[in-house]
Structure formats: structure tokens, C-alpha cells
């Protein structure tokens, strides 16, 4: 018998269902009565707030400020940039009326048809562009470096919590620059911010690179991305940074007088990450007992669990628990006080422990009459087995807390890195490539494949053919190490390869 685990099914049995069950067990989010939209519950939202706080700091440290633009965009704005329209038209929610009236047959009916329909923003390039056009007259008005924290909507029929929902939360940076060089530099700078955030905060290793033509953001000249590998070995695009050239500046008429007195179009960029990152954390670090949170983003670093059997022990154990929490809060981790919660529920010891295992708290600290007597704690780390607990002097535990959190964080990154390395394989042979991405049992596909670093001629037709046949795409053209071995040929057409790139199935 395999050891019992808290989540059914296990990852290897049914990864997609495991993912849903982890989210439910950790109480991160659930589906809502509004089709395609999710409710982010307090534990999930606290995680998002920590993601926001850290990224917001990084954005401000790189010279950006926040602003807010409207949710509704006039239809004509979206029509300005042809490729952009084409890219988003199929997934836009459209507002056509501005009130409801009692309908003769009962209920309510939309009334007051709008002259021009409004679009719920799928992204805000066009409306922000319209404002920048007003704000920019001279080269002295540039650069504009603005970020917006907002919700957006992209109509989805097949949704999955955090990964694909009609409405989601994100940030979108929008910048306008005097020169192409400056805008390109901005695009790279923000990609690097995302790479750092993914690795240093989320403990999620990524491959930074450039998207192929087929996968570019609609209207962008270049799209850069970070690609991570989930535990089912599929890729997750976790953040994008777009160099928009002068495309949006032309359609929005963001013009300025240059230093030489000429009228010129600005160079713009946009970049974003979304609540999808939470899906990335679940799928990178979760195990068969539930969520595991990287300490640097965990809403609680340590949870104190008061444990007693007799009612008369209650008061003293509670006092000791709160005192312990206070001691731990005096410690600092990553420049801020350690976040500690005391579990005030009436659940028994076993249930309390499992609840926090499933929620992914990095450290659990049990305190009971015996620990009190010894001025100690009985602790457990989420990165070790559920039953692996250790007793430690309370003051010593408080003192070692920051180092333990750092060790858990580093361990999680190292584990994810080695998994990614283990399932990244250089494959030059077309048959081996095919085999790598084909499940043994098509009825019940097991976890298979990974990243195949394979030679490619660079033609879109070859990428499309492989996508049609195997649902595998070029995840990106890595910033480093994309050159093909001498003499290698494209895995699809056999023509000389221009580069060797990571191919994978993806979310
Ligand atoms: Zn080819």
C-alpha cells in the first residue's frame, strides 16, 4: 500500500484533477455563480497581495508609477490597431445597453441601447494610448512609465481556476519612449524583473526568451516571455513583455516633437503578469498532501497550533501559544517581520496539522503542556514529511526561524530546478521527438515528455505542423544558448536548422 496522502487523486494518477483538489483543499479559490469567473478566497487573495506587494516594489525600484484607467473601452478604440483587433475580437465581452427595465413577461430586460458599444478591457493598450496621445507633446514629456493593477476579461468557455478564467487580476505596464533603443531596453528590463521575481520569490525557475512569430502578442513587434515547467512537464507562460515598436503610437497618435524639432511617433512597450502565477505556484510546488508555499510569498510563514486534551489546560496553552507567536514575530525574514498565525479553531491536533499542511504553510509549530514544561516547541517543516517533527527550545527556534525559512525557499528552488533539468532533453531525431511527446496510453495519458530542445529551421509552417500533430509549440527562443549544433536539421522539415529551441506542451 502506498502511504496515504491528503489529496486524492495523486499527481501521477490525474494531474488536472489533483490541481483542482489542491486549490480546494488549500481554500485558495472556487468557481462562482457567474460562469467562467472565480472567487478568490482569503488565503488565495493574501497570496496575491504578497505577489502584488513584491512586484510593485520591483516596478517602483525600476522607475515606474501606478495609475488607473477605465474598465470600459469604446469599440472604435479597439478597432484602431488591425492585428490587435484580430487577436482579441473573439474573446471580448461587449456592453451594448445602459439600463434594465421591467419586462412585460416579468424579469428584467436590457434597455437604452448604446450608440457605440463598449468593450470590457481584454488589455488596455488602446485606452492608455489615447491618454498618452494627450499627455505627450514634446520629447520632454517622455518617457512615461506607468503600471496599472486591474482586472481584465477575455471570454473563455473552458475555464480552469487561476490558469484560464474569463475575468482575472493582473498588472499591465505601459510605457512610451523617445527612442527605439530605450523602448527595447525597457522591454528587456521588465523581462528581467519577471525572471527575478519568478526565481527569487516564487522559487520557480524559468527560461527567458523571445516568442516566435506565431505566438506573439497581437500588434507587438516582439514578445518576450518567461516559461516555467510544471510538474506534469507542461510549460506555463508566466509573464510577458512586449516591444510594440511604433504600432500603437501610430494607431493612438502618440506623437511628439523631437530634440531636432521633428514630429515623431513614440516607441511603446507593455508588460504583464496575472493571477495565473498562483496556478504556477500550485503546479510547481504542490505535492500529494496539498499546497506548498514558497516562504517568501506565504501569507503566514509559521502557524502556531495550540494543542491540549483537557479543558483545564486550555488557558495556559493558549497563553503560551500567543507568547510564542509574539516571540516569532520579532524575527525578520527578507527585510520584514515574520508573519505568524495562531490557529484558533476548535479542531483536534491532527486536523489542525493537516489543514495547514494542505494550505502550504512553511512551518507548523505545535505547543502543548509538555512543550510548555520544557519551554520548547514541537515543529514541522512543509518541505519535509508530514510526520517528521522536531522538538526545539523555543528561543532557539525563534532565533533560527529566518535561516529555516531561507533554507526552505532555497530548497524549493533547487528542487524545481533539478526537475526542470531532468526533463529537458536535447532531441535531434524526429522519431525520438515524436515519441517523447506521445503518451504510452492515449486512453489515460500519463505524465510524459518535458522540454525537448530541438533544432528548428525557423519557419512558421514547421511550428504549426508540429502544433497540429502533437500540440507542442516552441515555448520561446531563449535569450541564451539557442544556437543549433553544427549540421543539425529541423525536426519537422529536415532543412538546415537555424536554432535549437525548447518545444513543449503548454497551458
Ligand atoms: Zn522546418
Structure, explained:
This protein has 507 residues and is an alpha+beta fold. The protein has 3 domains: 15-285, 2-Layer Sandwich (BirA Bifunctional Protein, domain 2); 302-407, Rossmann fold, CATH 3.40.50; 424-504, C-terminal domain of ProRS (Translation Initiation Factor IF3). It contains 14 helices and 26 strands. The strands form 7 sheets. An 8-stranded mixed β-sheet has the order 3-7-8-14-11-10-9-25, sandwiched between helices. The chain has a 5-stranded mixed β-sheet with strand order 18-15-19-20-21, with helices on both faces. A hairpin with a 7-residue loop joins strand 20 and strand 21. The radius of gyration is 26 Å and the shape is globular. The mean pLDDT is 95. The chain binds zinc ion.
Summarize the entry for a quick read.
The protein is of the alpha+beta class and 507 residues long.
- Please outline the major beta sheet: 8 strands, mixed
- Give the N-to-C terminal Cα separation: 33 Å
CATH topology of the largest domain: BirA Bifunctional Protein, domain 2
Average pLDDT:
95
- Proportion of residues in β-strands: 25-35%
Which CATH class of the largest domain?
A: Alpha Beta
Integer count of domains: 3
Index terms:
BirA Bifunctional Protein, domain 2; eight-stranded mixed sheet; 3 domains; binds zinc ion; 14 helices; Rossmann fold; 507 residues; alpha+beta
